[in-house]
Design a protein that fits this description.
EC 6.3.4.15; 2 domains; alpha+beta
Length: 261
């Protein structure tokens, strides 16, 4: 049974019938916003994921972006990718009651029964080491499974297909916004340490051998931890390696490019 939640205080909301990309809309309106704002679209015509990949967005799925104006330096603000992942996991557990079904994949995915359910995309802008805004985009397969899947990718899954849970995007946004507000408060009050601990408790393949591809190198090793800077730490035959950005593969099959990661 779904818990009742309300919209969090201090967060504005903008619901659009259609937009090219909620992250693109965030860029266009960021300068006019007076506080944290959620932008949701019932339809995206040019959704995108990490590294410019397309994000396929069937009707009934969630496409939303939270726009913030962080006071921290860019590296610290970027740790909100973990805040966002935890919040999304919290929201999914609230609507399904199935904590054991979900896992978090570094750096930005949520898995359901091992398939890709959701992706998170952070984009920012600023000058001189100070951010003008941070956009946190969420794409969640609530209802439909995208039909376009990259070769070799773990197939995407939908919340409805895997759990039978049916929830409209705007209703799910309320759960997500409430969960994010709680995790953001935790991050503001206590820093990254408790966020990191909670994320690791839900991490997919922790302690197992995985492969990270950075574009310049391919590194295989045991997934040891995520460090205090959010880096993926692998234990390899040549020692521990901290990786700031990469695509992660499980068992030589990519789990990060399904549905336009």
């Amino acid at each position: 049974m779904m818990k009742n939640v309300g919209w969090p205080d201090g967060y504005a909301k903008c619901i659009l019938p259609e937009v090219d990309s909620t992250n693109a809309e965030a860029v266009r309106v960021a300068a006019t916003l007076t506080g944290p704002t959620w932008i949701m679209a019932h339809r995206q015509t040019a959704g995108r994921g990490r590294r410019g990949r397309p994000w396929v967005d069937p009707t009934g799925n969630l496409a939303a972006t939270l726009v913030l104006r962080p006071a921290e330096v860019p590296g610290q603000a970027a740790l909100r990718s973990f805040v966002a992942a935890l919040a999304l996991d919290d929201a999914l557990v609230m609507v399904t009651g199935r904590a054991e079904s979900f896992a978090l994949k570094w750096p930005n995915d949520v898995l359901l029964h091992g398939g890709k359910l959701a992706g998170i995309l952070l984009e920012s802008a600023g000058i001189g080491g100070k951010l003008s805004h941070l956009a946190i985009g969420f794409g969640v397969n609530l209802s439909e499974v995208p039909q376009v899947v990259a070769k070799g990718a773990v197939p995407p899954v939908s919340l409805r297909g895997e759990t039978g849970t049916q929830i409209a995007p705007e209703d799910f946004l309320t759960y997500l916004a409430a969960a994010y507000a709680m995790r953001e408060d935790q991050f503001a009050r206590h820093g990254f340490a408790p966020i990191r601990t909670a994320w690791l408790a839900r991490a997919a393949r922790l302690g197992e051998v995985i492969t990270a591809r950075t574009g310049k190198a391919e590194i295989t090793g045991r997934f040891e931890t995520v460090d205090e800077d959010g880096n993926l730490v692998l234990s390899t035959g040549t020692g521990r390696q901290a990786i700031a950005a990469a695509d992660v593969f499980f068992d030589e099959v990519e789990a990060g490019h399904a549905a336009g990661d």
